Amino acid sequence: MAQTRTAPDLAPASTSRDPRRWIALGVLMLPVLLVSIDNTVLSFALPQISAALEPGGTQLLWIVDVYPLVLSGLLVPMGSFADRIGRRRLLLTGAVGFAVVSAVAAFAPTAGALVASRAALGFFGAMLLPSTLSLLRNVFTDRTERRLAIAIFASGFAAGGAVGPIVGGLLLEHFWWGSVFLLAVPVLALLLVLAPVFVPESRDPARGRIDPVSIALVMATMTSVVLGIKTLAKGGATTTALALVAVGLLLGAGFVRRQLRRPDPMLDVRLFAVGAFSGGVLVNLLSVFSLVGFLFFVSQDLQLVIGLSPVQAGLVLLPGTVAMVVAGLTVVRVVRRVRPAHVVAAGLAVSAVGYLITALVGGRGEAGWLAVAFVVLSLGIGTAETISNDAVVSAVPPEKAGAASAISETAYESGAVLGTAVLGSILTASYSSAVVVPAGVPAADAAAATETLGGAAGVAEGLPAGQAQALLDSAHAAFGSGVVTTSVIGFVAVLAAAVIALTMLRHVRS
User: Fold this and answer.
1) CATH architecture assignment, domain 19-147+161-203
2) pLDDT tens per residue across span 442-484
3) Of the residues 298, 430, 436, 505, which has the fewest C-beta atoms closer than 10 A?
4) How confident is the model at residue 117 (pLDDT cuts 50, 70, 90)?
């Protein structure tokens, strides 16, 4: 009987010249594209999910939030686990689980079942992300080649974010909401066929024991802190929000103390003393925070203010995505001659201009200027993502690549969660305080109209023409005012990332 040919456990020295390394890169891009698309298309499917499953307000929030909460809490443990049992093995395990659960989620009969499915997707998604970047670290041992590979890797997130609205819009125009989850099945089936052939296995040769206590501590830390910050951003400084953050910080301190005392820690927290490592993590987090926060309000602006369809909105953002990919690839050549800290800081300064443009035109129905703003913003983000990811994985020895990659991915996911929670909540609060509902609108409709721009648009559909126009004019003006406030905060976050790059990445060589 013929046996399946598998890629041998190649040593780093041999993979540097193995022609399969570029095919391996293409294979490893599959889960990256998938996760990025999956994050984007869900937001466009929420109206159909609401109509079909009739979730309550809390359930709808959990459908969105439970995936990144579980994912961010498990990335570090899964990265360490991959170092110990084998990165390719964990990648394939995660692919099988993610594909199966995606099919289950597509046919979820109730909102509760969909929440549970999304939590399971976060569990298996945490197996996919650290494994991909850590495998690249071991396949591409040449620094220049690795930077190019990481640039392509980072571009995958951007490409997926742009393709998601277009693909999701097409699917939702012709099929039911569950079709957005079924996207994962063919992509991961292809990964399961190609990865054993082209992706070499790698692991930490000095792997230690699995530490369940450390896993529980880091999960509880990440979940408490992220949930606390989201609660803080949405409801203010309530006792619950502050308690969640405080508990998370205490658990985090316990996790750090345990890692410092163990001879074989799950995560070597001393890595954060290395400026290139901690600086790369912070730049990654703030860059994604700014990018996702921008996408949160610009997608509403394009669809609810200007009136574009999801597909049309995705096409408006497409030039920015192309700019991000080009910047990420071009910077590989630039940093051969210019210090990475200077390149990243200059790129992020350009991105800050994108937020200034948005502050001037956001909420005013000018799609062309929003497209320009996204292009300018994307140039710096593409540059920063390539260099920051490279700084993180290059600051550690190859055998620790899984844990380092997990931290980089945790920064990415945390930035995405916080970008939506913080900037999105500030925008919502600003909108709610400024919108004026015309007299005579029923109390329940008035409450819905003051909560979100989408709520105002929905209420306006059932009002007489005069009232409807008055409500929409007020809602659009209130939303535009919120965009200005949010853009200023995004501007500050991008500049903060630029300062961090100048100071903490200054010793990273060209």
Assistant:
1) Up-down Bundle (1.20)
2) 777 787 777 777 777 778 877 887 888 888 888 878 887 778 8
3) 436
4) very high
| Cα distances (Å, whole numbers) of residue 108 to 16, 94, 95 | 45, 20, 20
Alpha-carbon torsion 46, 44, 364, 372, what sign? positive
Instruction: List pLDDT tens digits, range 179-222.
Output: 888 888 888 899 899 888 887 777 766 666 777 888 888 778 87
Q: How many CB atoms lie within 10 A of CB 336?
A: 11
Torsion 154-287-245-423 (CA) sign: negative
473, 465, 314, 385: CA torsion to nearest 10 = 30
Please identify, in words, the CATH class of the domain defined by 273-510.
mainly alpha
Backbone angles phi, psi at 206, to 5 degrees: -105, 40
- For residue 437, the 8-state DSSP code is P
How far is the C-alpha of 334 from the C-alpha of 29, rounded, in Å? 24
Contact predicate 367/308, CB 8 Å? yes
Residues 373 and 355: beta-carbon distance below 8 Å: yes
The four Cα atoms 415, 314, 65, 187 give a dihedral, to 10 degrees, of -100
Contacts 24+ apart (CB under 8 A), 106-113: 106/178, 106/179, 106/180, 106/181, 106/182, 107/178, 108/53, 108/178, 110/53, 111/49, 111/53, 111/54, 111/55, 111/56, 111/59, 111/60, 111/63, 112/59
**What are the backbone dihedrals phi and psi of residue 444, each rounded to the nearest 5 degrees, phi first?**
-65, -40
DSSP class of residue 400 equals G
Is 381 exposed, middle or buried, given 0-12, 13-18 or 19+ CB atoms closer than 10 A? buried
Cα 313 to Cα 166: distance, rounded to the nearest angstrom? 8
Integer CA distances (angstroms), 453 to 189, 258, 292, 370, 445, in order: 39, 47, 18, 18, 13
Distance CA 510, CA 507 (A): 9
Q: Which amino acid does the sequence have at 35? A: V
> Could you count the other beta carbons within 10 Å of the beta carbon of residue 250?
13
According to DSSP, residue 507 is labeled T
Domain extents for the chain? 19-147+161-203, 212-261, 273-510
Give the integer Cα–Cα distance in Å for 39 and 417: 11
Query: Would you place residue 14 in the very low, low, confident or very high pLDDT band (cuts 50, 70, 90)?
Result: very low
Buried b (16+ CB within 10 A) or exposed e, 455-475: bbbebbeebeeebbebbbebb
86: left (phi over 0), alpha (psi -120 to 50) or beta: left
Residue whose structure tokens are 């097409």:
170
CA distance 20 to 95: 21
- Give me 429's structure tokens: 């609060």
